[in-house]
Structure formats: C-alpha cells, structure tokens
Amino acid sequence: MKVYDNNISIRPLELKYINKNYLNWFKDKEVQKYIVGSNIKNLDELKKYYFENRLNKNSLLLGIFLKKNYHIGNIRVKFKDQSKQSCSIGILIGNKEFRNKGIGKRSLELAIEKINEFYNTIKFELGVNHQNFNAINSYQNAGFIIKNKKKNLLLMEKNLKNLNFHKFSIGTAQMG
Predict the structure, then answer these.
(1) DSSP H helical segments within 28-132, as ranges?
(2) Does the reported pTM lie above 0.70?
C-alpha cells in the first residue's frame, strides 16, 4: 500500500528506516510526552517493535515520508479481528520540525482512505492524551469525534459507515 499526495507519501515502513534518527524520537522529552506506553530505549527494542508489527497479520506499520524518502513519522494500525472492519490507529510525527503544519491530519486522512479501500475498514478508533490539544484538534479536523474519556485519555472514533451521505444518485421516477 503506497499513498502519495503532493509531497507526502505513506507506505509500509522498511527496515532501513529503523535507525538512530527514528530512535531519537523516543529519546526526545517533548516527543515522548504524549506517546502512550512507549518504553523503547535502544535500537534492538525498536527493531523488535518493528518486526512484531510487520509479522502480525492484524497490524500495519506505515511510514510517513516527505519528498518520497524523508521519514518524519509513522502510522500504526491494529485491526480488531480477521474481518478488518474495525481498527485502532495511532500516528506519530516524530520529527518536531513538521508538527502543527497539517501533515499529521493529511497523513491520517490518506491512510484511512487507503485502508478503507484495501481492507473495507469502516471504523477507526484512537486514544489521545486529554492535554494534547494540537493532536485532538488535528483528529477532529480529520473527522474523528470524542466518544469517551478514561482517566487522562480521550477515546475518539471515525466511522465511515456514518459518512456515506455523499454517495447518492439522481434520477427520475415515472408514476402512472
């Protein structure tokens, strides 16, 4: 699955991008602040995370790239079951230089569009720290709504089944 939109490309993350640059995202306190459950401390742990996701049939680990090969972030998808109708999705713009520029929102939209096209996935869920206002705003602008709050976590959802209002037909009927 490859997606291109202007300068943004989203594609399966390759092993060559599991490097010190990527690892440094997890060492940056500002980036680390809102990453839930991450305790990656070295390159071996990062490679383990990569392979666990690549080998799992219900998981996708996608890289976000600018100008085709400049890795700035990731999107992780975990399908709820074999039907792939529903998934949890997470996004990280690890390169701080590209935050708050709309790239995360657009990357998320592109990924959702293609995941729906390839797997017929209609329900996307994500969790976000209730104080991560930039991310919450970005997710809402990408069509997510807040469904629930658990402690410091907002649970958000985008259901494409509810968005099919744009599919309609125009015609006439002959009434006798």
Answers:
(1) 29-32, 43-55, 103-119
(2) yes
